[in-house]
Amino acid sequence: MLKSFDPSNGDLVGEVATTPAEDIDAIVADAHLAQKKWAKLNVTERVAILNSAYEDLAQQINPLAELLSREMGKDLRRSSGEVTGVAMGSPYTTDGVARAIQPKQIDGGMIEYVPLGVAAVISPWNYPLAMANNLIVPALIAGNSVVFKPSEETPLIAQAFAETLNRHLPSNVLQIVHGGRDLGKAIVEADVNIIAFTGSQAAGKDIMRRSASGLKRLVMELGGNDPMIVLPDADLKRAAQFAVASSFENAGQMCTSTERIYVHESVADRFETIVFDIAQRYQSGPWDQQGVNIGPIINNTQRGKVIDHIDDAISKGARVLLGGGDHPEHYVAPTVLADITPDMRMETEETFGPVVAISRYKDIDTAVDRANDSEFGLGAVVFGNKAAVEIGRRLEAGMIGINGGPGGGGDAPWVGAKQSGIGFHGSDDGHRQFTQVRVIG
Ligand code: NAD
């Protein structure tokens, strides 16, 4: 059995049956059979089926949000937001995918977007519903069947989600399997046609290697180490509010959370003061405690890594503005560090914890160079007035936020540059990556 624990106290929340890796080939074979029938439905029929599943999900927002909180640790307001976003937002995505994959007339023929076959969807724990759903919706509407492996940290919420969808979908169009990374590897190596993955860079590289022999299609949304640049003419209060909120969001366990802040020396003292003022009001604790906005860290390994990054920075000369010392069991205390330097792990690696990490710069070229000196390129943010957009264009990232978070609203793609991903989802181009493009004429 795969056990699921409450990260705020280590108590058992529940368990599900683990899927033996030897069963994967038969599961994928069933998925191929189901896909052939699913693809025979027209896209309007597929949209109608999925939309009725989301109506069903919308009836269960409170119990699902509570389960998500218990299993993953984020507070109930954030869990409710995630479940609501999936239940209410997905019908827009189903329509968007349906539009994107309509055949297009060209001179002397047609461009068509046909299903690929079986999609493996492998997802992380930090937004356990949203991340899985972002990949499952386009895969299904495009006429693929799905073998879904959620994170071993959050199997229960994934199981509840899949059971709801499966009350509406034909049998075996969506199959959920449970296990850790070895099961993920077995799925990648099985007879699947596309692997849609959200998770760490290390796992992404392993998936790319394992899928090479079959030249399987890949959509991979990977880690980040997002920089933020604060220009001298920035609205400092807004910048500081964003810096703290983005660094602490989901206890820092967000792929586009701000990981490194470069602030011009002329405004750095004031920026640090406002950051401290805001940050010291944050409160960590379990999901059901009033006023909590920072939850536990998902597991001991991840918590140990965040604390190592903090200790490494302090040992190399970082100035502690908040926290940095004692961390309650299961948590990392909200921490603000200044004087971060390029030799610190916090600068070069994804920390994924509730830490605001501030550096000062004299000239903008140094700030841009340090922001770009990373193998990651997911999001980046610039706060400032006159030159903000121009500086933003110099940053090597897929999503650049100007005076706000990265990632456009509406139907913008969710896209990483460099080693933060390959392929992407969202937008017409993203939706079409779940299809084979075919030219007839
Ligand atoms: P992870 O890579 O450890 O695990 C993600 C999923 O992949 C899990 O289901 C896991 O069992 C499976 N897995 C692990 N190794 C595998 C392998 N070699 N082959 C196949 N499957 C494998 O990541 P995590 O700790 O669950 O999630 C945190 C990471 O995800 C962070 O790096 C974060 O930045 C990233 N993330 C990225 C985005 C994005 O949109 N770019 C969104 C959320 C999270």
Q: How would you portray this structure in words?
A:
This protein is of the alpha/beta class and 441 residues long. It folds into two domains: 2-222 and 417-440, Aldehyde Dehydrogenase, Chain A, domain 1; 226-402, Aldehyde Dehydrogenase, Chain A, domain 2. The protein is 41% helix and 20% strand. It contains 15 helices and 18 strands. Strands 12-13-14-11-10-15-16 form a seven-stranded mixed β-sheet, with helices on both faces. Strands 7-6-5-8-9-17 form a six-stranded mixed β-sheet, sandwiched between helices. The chain has a three-stranded antiparallel β-sheet with strand order 3-4-18, with no helix packed on it. Strand 10, helix 9 and strand 11 form a beta-alpha-beta unit. Helix 2 (43-58) crosses helix 6. The chain starts with a strand and ends with a strand. The mean pLDDT is 97. Nicotinamide-adenine-dinucleotide binds next to helix 7 and helix 8.
Query: What structural category characterises the helix and strand content?
Result: alpha/beta
* Average residue pLDDT: 97
Strand % is 15-25%
Radius of gyration, in Å, reads 22 Å
Describe the largest sheet: 7 strands, mixed
Question: Percent range for helical residues?
Answer: 40-55%
Task: Describe the structure in brief.
With about 450 residues, the protein is of the alpha/beta class. The protein is about 40% helix and about 20% strand. The chain has helices at about 25-40, 45-60, 60-70, 75-100, 130-140, 155-165, 180-190, 200-210, 235-250, 265-280, 300-315, 345-350, 365-370, 390-395, 425-430; strands at about 1-5, 10-15, 105, 110-115, 120, 145-150, 175, 195-200, 215-220, 225-230, 260-265, 320, 335-340, 355-360, 380-385, 400, 420, 435-440.
